[in-house]
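Q: Structure tokens for this one, please.
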Amino acid sequence: MQDTTADQTDRPLWPALRRGFSRKCPNCGSGPILKSYLKLRETCPVCREDLSHARADDGPAYLTILIVGHLMAPLLHISFVQFRPEPLVLFTIFAIGTITLSLYLLPRLKGAIVAFQWARLMHGFSDSH
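A: Here is the predicted structure, written as tokens:
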């Protein structure tokens, strides 16, 4: 009995990740991968790639928290030590920055995770349909 999964090769990862991060289909790079802020499309409207296999779950949220936390915590410390702003000013600036960065990254990281799964043939993404 021959293993058919060993015959399948992975798709190019970095182009797929760039396309996914830009919220485009990892296959064609043209069609939008999301139909609303975080709702994944069933299929690509351009190339008809089946995207229903994707399982992003909590991954985008964890990555967003990781990235935003690692950027904002050092910036908060540096700005407090260097400039000593009023606490309310510091809170306001960093609250707005944190929310803005989180809202920017969340759909892009979801697209990147779906593109990673597509490139690595995970969760039903395979060449044989």
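A few notes: Confidence is low (pLDDT under 50) at residues 1-7. Residues 13-119 form one domain.
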